[in-house]
């Protein structure tokens, strides 16, 4: 990052945001390289139009963008969403990593490796998310570590779901699917959950009421909700393997 910043005359101390953009495709490496160049050009053109300064390049099959701080840094997520829209208009589906608070090159390196090593699992864990944050990738890494530690650890972490597993198999599947989408994909939004599951909102509300009754507490109650979130995440990763 520092080398690129020196070339472009940018104060590296003012750069704390990094975007990682990886095109999603099954193309051959030579074609992928061309695709990366096209995506990089779109990203650079977008940054220029939005008056966003910062070095950018391709590294390890990933477009890396560093964004210099501005008085409107609070709008950085909106800029990222607009860039995603531009890429979609050009028919370039991508995985987008959004990293803030990157104080030095060591932090940047750790974030990049986190993205590279856990992107596949993160896409499994958060299929409805356009952006993957550092927190989501770190959480994904923790879930993968739980699975790697063996069946005993998995049983311990997924134990909060046990009350839902003693129901009819069809009901069990419906309840787990609803709870997974509700907590993992929609931040406990009933309307969005109904939309993703192609259900009526009243059906989602009924299922959540049933889940609350079986568990003996509201699924949004902390810290129980955090334990449920982790249990569902580990289960989803296992199902995706």
UniProtKB/TrEMBL annotation:
<feature type="domain" description="PucR C-terminal helix-turn-helix">
    <location>
        <begin position="175"/>
        <end position="233"/>
    </location>
</feature>
<dbReference type="InterPro" id="IPR025736">
    <property type="entry name" value="PucR_C-HTH_dom"/>
</dbReference>
<dbReference type="InterPro" id="IPR042070">
    <property type="entry name" value="PucR_C-HTH_sf"/>
</dbReference>
<protein>
    <recommendedName>
        <fullName>PucR C-terminal helix-turn-helix domain-containing protein</fullName>
    </recommendedName>
</protein>
<dbReference type="Pfam" id="PF13556">
    <property type="entry name" value="HTH_30"/>
</dbReference>
<dbReference type="InterPro" id="IPR051448">
    <property type="entry name" value="CdaR-like_regulators"/>
</dbReference>
């Amino acid at each position: 990052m520092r080398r690129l910043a020196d070339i472009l005359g940018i104060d590296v101390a003012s750069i704390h945001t990094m975007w990682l953009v990886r095109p999603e495709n099954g193309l051959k490496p030579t074609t992928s390289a061309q695709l990366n160049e096209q995506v990089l050009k779109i990203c650079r053109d977008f940054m220029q139009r939005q008056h966003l300064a910062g070095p950018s390049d391709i590294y390890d099959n990933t477009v890396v963008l560093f964004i210099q701080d501005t008085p409107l840094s609070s709008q950085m997520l909106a800029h990222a969403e607009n860039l995603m829209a531009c890429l979609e208009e050009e028919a370039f589906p991508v995985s987008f990593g959004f990293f803030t608070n990157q104080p030095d090159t060591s932090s940047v390196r750790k974030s990049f490796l986190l993205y590279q090593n856990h992107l596949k699992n993160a896409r499994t864990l958060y299929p409805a998310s356009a952006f993957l944050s550092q927190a989501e990738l770190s959480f994904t890494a923790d879930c993968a570590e739980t699975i790697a530690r063996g069946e005993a650890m998995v049983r311990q972490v997924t134990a909060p779901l046990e009350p839902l597993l003693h129901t009819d198999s069809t009901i069990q599947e419906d309840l787990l699917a609803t709870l997974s989408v509700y907590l993992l994909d929609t931040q406990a939004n009933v309307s969005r959950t109904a939309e993703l599951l192609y259900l009526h909102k009243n059906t989602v509300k009924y299922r959540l009421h049933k889940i609350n009754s079986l568990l003996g507490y509201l699924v949004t109650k902390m810290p129980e909700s955090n334990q449920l979130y982790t249990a569902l995440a580990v289960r989803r990763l296992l199902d995706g393997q």
